[in-house]
Amino acid sequence: NFFIAKNYKVTDFVELAGENGTYQVLVESASVSNTMAEQDVTNPPVVEKPEAQVELAEIPASTVRSGLVELENRATQLIQAMENLKTSPDTVPQTPISAPPVVGFLAPERRDAGDIVSALETLICTAEANTDPDYSLPPLNEVSQLALISHSFVAYLSHLRRSQLLRVTTKIASDTNRWLSHIFRFSDSSTSYHNDSTECVLRALRLAIVSRCPGYLEAGIQALANPSMYVTENSALVALQYACRQLGLPSECIRIVPSSAGSMGTMDVATLQKLIAADVANKRVPLFVIANVGASVCGFVDNIPRLYDVCRQANVWLHCRGHSLAALATAQGSGDVRELCDSISLSLGSWLAVPSLPVVLLHRQIQNVALSVFESDPIVSRRLNSLTLWTTLQALGRDLISERILMAFESVRVVYEILSKCEGIRILSKKPGGENGISVVDLVHEPLNASLLFEIAVSVVVFQFHQRSPDVAEGVPDERGERSRYLDRMNEWLGEIIQRDCPGVDLEIIDHAVYGTAIRFCPFEMSLGESVPTIEYLEHFAACLDLQVGILKATERHKITFQDIVTRSAVLRLIPLPDWAGLGGVRFVPDGWETLLTDQAKTELNKLNTDLVETLRSTDSAFTLGEGTDGLICVKLGMVTEETDVEELLDVVISVGRSVQENSRVLDSMSEIVKKGIEAVTADLQRESDEKLWQDGILRHVPIVGSVFNWWSPPPKETGIKGRSLNLTQGVVESTENIYKYHMQMASGANQIPGNRSPPTPMVQTSVSAGHSRNVSQSSGTSTVQQEAQQTH
User: Where do Polar residues bias regions lie (predicted)?
Assistant: First the structure.
């Protein structure tokens, strides 16, 4: 039996010697919670032991292995609980969570782990409940779950004894390095693992400095005199600026290399040579070049062989980054990329859609330099962080990794073909396969030709809706005028509609520096829960794209007719809406209103157009409420199809607008009648109340005395004050004795029931609308608004 005293803890264990082997467990002095109280072991005095005399004990391998299994099971349960928030949003934890006594401070009492997890679940639910009914945690597959659990293993294994930790991490790091070097054809390389590609650039720049200036490790930045870094204008400028800030280098060290003319945004190698020669002449040190291999927005690939020749002649470090580097994992033939660059960065997490994988930097080895000098803890930070990759690569296997990457490149090729067949779509990215139409699949079993592979392996498709104008040459962007802004809005609409109708195709709406708003498809930037679309799903995408592009083309064509009709209309005004992608905006303005646009008239005009939109939306959702640049309400007309009759559509707007205008006049007349009726009722009741007071005498209204007086001489029953009702049909205020006598409202004249006698005329009738016409208010029927005021004794 192995016992641990209360004041001791198990800190470390080493790798498994075999199925029936044992673990070496180191016992060190430490203050911990009661560990083995249930074993009835008395606490021995704490004795400090030198490191050479540490006490070792042996326990069965299965016992220690159970710790990892228990950690895996617990982590799996917690992850599955978070996944249930996505699949079952209604199952919110019902157990009330006690809040800390003081908001913002840690509660003094401890909380159970289950309560803490429940609080986290509740936090996730409430954070998304007000905005999105779907939660942000998608379900995990087996590989993704293993990758997340591996992070728990990293934290667990970091408590091993240093010698044991070194042995475990050396094995994990060497395996991962060997596998990655073989998969991505970078032999005899070293690896480092980082949180993002920006840290990769920083690490590569440090390697370039150490390689070029060995005295940098001892003398610091003073040993590096006036370095120069080169990057293209559409590459990782932000990452390089971050690296310079971290190393204390001025931003003047960065040289922006322009793109080659007619080469789809790639670096101009001739200009790079001139910049390097000029820097050498000015006693600067050319140090670092970042090359694009599909890293830009449009996935451009630089001429890597030519760049490497220039860098090798000038002793400059060449770093490559981009999604097209993933094509190296598909090559099965012989070959190597060690003679094409000095380092590459691999974003395996986004390429394989596996969460929380580090970004890998593969680089050539540097002689006589210990790379651990860059790490605060070389064992943990540089080696143990490879555990997630170590588990994930084994869970996937070489074949599945290659298959996933091939599927991604194939989806790019299929999407490009779909777009090229769609009239009205302009493609801004490069054609996959080059001019000869070679696919990545064709080169799988061929000897590795990295430059050709990078040329045909296009990782992204960027496109936009664009109707070619006859006065604009093909390939030249339009002037950024009104039409360009309108096309931007149409492309935003197209991207949003396809995102809604085809969620399986991960599209991104971007703002291109030259061509404006565009849509980008990149299957190498997948997040958790996403996958490469299948060929069958891409057929659905093609049908959806054709439908929406047809709507855009029809809308742009009908827009000219729409503007002409509105311009000729007497009651419609064209309202410019620069941020609206539909037909446009109109405002219904009755005759004569434009000459009397006072504040009150503007309010009435806004109300009229608001009512118009509400009426139109009851029959067609294409009408929406808008606001012009003058702040007044207008009617926005959305997208239309080829079959839409724009003239008929605007006739409907005019017809409904006039109907709403007439109804508003009736309502205004009714409101005026009601207002005057209330005033007449108030005056009549006040007058009758005063008359009754004088007729009855003051004594009847004195407390106690009035009761005796009324008992001695009761008042007549018919002398009470009559109530009033407002007859909207006739525009008069009438007394209510007939209502109380017959217990109903009775009409006379045309509205009388056949065969019935006419009711007696009310005792009081007061006209409240001298100019009121019965025909005007006939639309309201025989409804009346009663204003009842009864005074009791």
Answer: 763-775
Q: Quick: pLDDT tens for 691-712.
A: 776 666 666 666 776 676 677 6
Show the DSSP H helices in 502-645 as ranges: 535-568, 599-617
The single residue listed with the structure tokens 């060929």 is: 535
SS3 of 96-107: the string is CCCCCCCCCCCC
CA distances from 387 to 67, 188, 343, 393, 555 (A): 17, 21, 22, 10, 55
Count CB neighbours of 755 within 10 A: 5
CB 548 within 8 A of CB 491: no
Q: Among residues 405, 416, 480, 472, which one has the least CA distance to residue 443? A: 405
| Dihedral (CA of 644, 650, 655, 660) sign | positive
φ, ψ (nearest 5 deg) of residue 51: -60, -30
The H-or-E segment that residue 412 falls in is: helix 387-420
Supply the pLDDT for residue 335: 79
Phi, psi angle pair for 759, to nearest 5°? -70, 155
- The span from the CA of 725 to the CA of 321, in Å, is 84
pLDDT at 219 over 80: no
The residues facing 290 across adjacent strands are 231, 319
Residue ranges and CATH numbers for the domains of the chain are 8-136 (no CATH), 153-401 (3.40.640.10), 409-430+460-551 (3.90.1150.170), 554-644 (no CATH), 670-780 (no CATH)
Please give the average per-residue pLDDT across 24-33, as a whole number: 35
pLDDT for the residue numbered 216: 75
Which ranges of 469-595 does DSSP label H, i.e. alpha helix?
Answer: 482-501, 535-568
Distance CA 488, CA 468 (A): 14
On average, the pLDDT of the chain sits at 76
Name residue 329's amino acid. A
Distance of CA 31 to the CA centre of its chain: 47
436-492 pLDDT, tens digit each: 778 888 888 888 888 889 989 999 999 999 876 544 444 445 445 778 888 999 999
More confident residue, 176 or 138: 176
Q: Which residue has the higher pLDDT, 759 or 519?
A: 519
